[in-house]
Amino acid sequence: MVTGRVELTQFHTPAAVNVTPHNAPSNALGIRRIMFAVDDLDAVLARLSPHGAEIVGEIAQYENFYRLCFIRGPEGIILGLAQQLT
Description:
By secondary structure, the chain is mostly beta strands. 9% of the residues lie in helices and 34% in strands. It has a domain at 33-84: 2,3-Dihydroxybiphenyl 1,2-Dioxygenase, domain 1. The protein has one helix at residues 41-48, and strands at 33-38, 54-62, 66-72, 78-84. It comes from Herpetosiphon gulosus.
């Protein structure tokens, strides 16, 4: 059962331009992030780190239900990762 879809697009022309601050905080206004559910947060972080992903802030735990964090990729895009614990 598919519960969601994400479309990824790459523009070849015109050349991409950066019009926003590269290090904007994760709570800045605008569409700056997307959240993904993951099975093993630590494994995903270990896999993404060599590709330039950096944790924004720290890994948080919401009671005994979720571990989550935001990461910033090399292009400055923020992704949220959430691991359900129960």
